[in-house]
From TrEMBL:
Residues 101-158 form a coiled coil. Stress-inducible actin-binding protein that plays a role in synaptic and cognitive functions by modulating actin filamentous (F-actin) dynamics. Mediates polymerization of globular actin to F-actin. Also binds to, stabilizes and bundles F-actin. Involved in synaptic function by regulating neurite outgrowth in an actin-dependent manner and for the acquisition of hippocampus-dependent cognitive function, such as learning and long-term memory. Keywords: Actin-binding, Cell cycle, Cell junction, Cell membrane, Cell projection, Coiled coil, Cytoplasm, Cytoskeleton, Growth regulation, Membrane, Nucleus, Stress response, Synapse. It comes from Anolis carolinensis (Green anole). InterPro entries: FAM107. It is found in: Cell junction, Focal adhesion; Cell membrane; Cell projection; Cytoplasm, Cytoskeleton, Stress fiber. The gene is FAM107A. This is Actin-associated protein FAM107A.
Length: 175
């Protein structure tokens, strides 16, 4: 069921009872109590009146308490920002779809990578771990040698190439 806001609509052509010349004219409503339901009883006679309406200046009149959350600056700024975003048609978490998908993929990739690393650590024995460390050291040494060779002058590179070719031709003649 949904919430109804405002007054209910009446669907008959004549919505109220008409009194012409002292006679009641019914609007075709099936309920005999429809007229009674429309008339509101006077609640002012039933309710007790508060004491502070006396006009006594010595009495302190009660004031409505302020909600400290709603009175705070940060809450007001947040509310203002939400209203502006609502007017513009933006949601609270409005990111472009592509950006959301990319962030989701990155998150999933990091989670997968962490799981793989944990599984790899669990499965390896101490011997395999030591072999892996040695392999990483050798790879690092090879990278350092390649960097040194790249930084070396060109004539040294040519000289090394000549030595290699002379060694290769000598080995080929022997075989």
């Amino acid at each position: 069921m949904g919430a109804t806001h405002g007054k209910k609509k009446e669907y008959s052509l004549q919505s109220a009872c008409h009194k012409d010349n002292g006679e009641l004219a019914f609007n075709g409503s099936a309920s005999m109590y429809s007229e009674i339901q429309r008339e509101r009883p006077d609640i002012g006679n039933i309710m007790a009146h508060p004491d502070y309406f006396d006009g006594n200046p010595d009495l302190i009149k009660p004031k409505k308490l302020l909600n400290p959350v709603r009175a705070s600056k940060s809450h007001q700024e947040l509310h203002r920002e939400l209203l502006m975003n609502h007017k513009r048609g933006l949601g609270v978490e409005s990111k472009p779809e592509l950006q959301r998908v990319l962030e989701h993929r990155r998150r999933n990739q990091l989670i997968r990578q962490k799981k793989e690393e944990e599984e790899a650590k669990k499965l390896k024995s101490p011997f395999e771990q030591e072999l892996l460390k040695r392999q990483q050291r050798l790879e690092q040494l090879e990278r350092e040698q390649e960097k040194e060779e790249e930084n070396a002058p060109e004539f040294i590179k040519v000289k090394e190439n000549l030595r290699r070719t002379s060694v290769l031709t000598g080995v080929e003649k022997v075989a």
